[in-house]
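Recall the central idea of this unit: under ordinary conditions, the amino acid sequence of a chain determines the structure it adopts. In this exercise we apply that idea directly, starting from the sequence alone.
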Amino acid sequence: MLLEALTRGVGAGDDEVTYHDLDSVAGTWVEDPAFDAAMAAFEAVDEDLWR
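Accordingly, the structure predicted from this sequence is:
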């Protein structure tokens, strides 16, 4: 198992790996104004901290 993981990691494996980790949430985003308002604070730059 370790040898297989290392082989894939360096790109030497013959098998193509397909990941399905986030398939269940892909394309499920719903616009939410409350979320956008909460995230707006992260877009503000604190000039005193930036210097």
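The two ends are 49 Å apart (CA to CA).
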